[in-house]
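On clarity, I found the account of how folds are encoded harder to follow than it need be. Since the whole study asks how a given chain folds, the encoding of that fold should be made plain. For illustration, here is how one protein appears when written out as sequence plus structure tokens:

:::
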Amino acid sequence: MAVVAMLREFGISESSARAALSRLTKRGLIAVRGSGRPPVYHLTPQAVARHRSRMDHFLSFGARPPRWTGDWVTVSFSVPQSGQATRHAVRKALGSLGFARLYDSVWIRPGSDSGPVTQALCDVLDDVDGGRWSVMHTRFDEEAGPHGPAAAYDLAGLASAYEAFIARYSDLRAAVRDGEIDATRALVARTSVMDSWRKFPDIDPNLPEHLLPAPWPRQAARDLMLEIHSALGSLAEARLIQVATPHWPDAASWITHFQASENSVSIPAGGDG
């Protein structure tokens, strides 16, 4: 099977690959076409849409400074002393929506869209006796000062994560520039870089420049990712076609690679495998 052969390139055994395919099928992200053997898998429309959105999100992240108005969404909540589980649920919900804790029960997020958080707080706290919450749109008098919103974020830890990314892949970039990466290595290397980078849009609050310590390493990390991603695209595609073709004769007609640029991301169509 083509998918199993592809996953073998990343050290995933056949049994683990088949188990993963089974889980994805149950989640509705892939489907089986026909009833033949071996099975023919294809992405569902839901999975394609999710993949396109996710790729666009993490490849374009950091391309442009955020449009900044000085607005913040602020949440303040109060839960009875006995409501430890409820308090944890509120914090988990706020964290999943990109909020950071400024003080014990005061959470903030840059921007002005409060709709999702209002619904999330209703879902968690509406039936809790003594539970109270407020959602506010605020501005800070001393936004860039030591008591401003940046104090809610572990910017030092985030900077270290970007620097670790740069350190991890700098040798790979040098090898790419020297033409030392063949197609076999390109597929795994390019995927590894993409997989390592995609966490940053989820953990980086994308604060305006005046709230960030200088120098801020995100641009250097992004430039490194884009260079490797672009340079290895054709080689990774060639390797994937080579691996898949014995199991899927039409692979070359369907397999292609994403091309990211500084200002835009082009998402090509995919196919069955």
